[in-house]
């Protein structure tokens, strides 16, 4: 949770910096807050997401990486990369552990 707070603060500061619209070289530009992925440690995933991943459907799979993805409309979901032997897959879950497309 602390990690998300830090990301929020950095995002807010980058938005504040965008107001100046001048770089150090004096060339005007604008800074856009980038929507995207933030890496999340598997142990820091919400309990509902961890419970889904521990369920029968994914019991034999190992989480290799996880990301909190923010869409352009500010909705969020977790992108979880998993592996079982040589097979890999990506599972997208909301904060309640429900699968999304």
Automatic annotation (TrEMBL):
Alphabetically ordered keywords of this record: Signal
Leader sequence segment: 1-19
UniProt cross-references to SUPFAM superfamilies, sorted A to Z: BT0923-like
Identification of the protein by name: PepSY domain-containing protein
Taxonomic lineage: Bacteria, Pseudomonadati, Bacteroidota, Cytophagia, Cytophagales
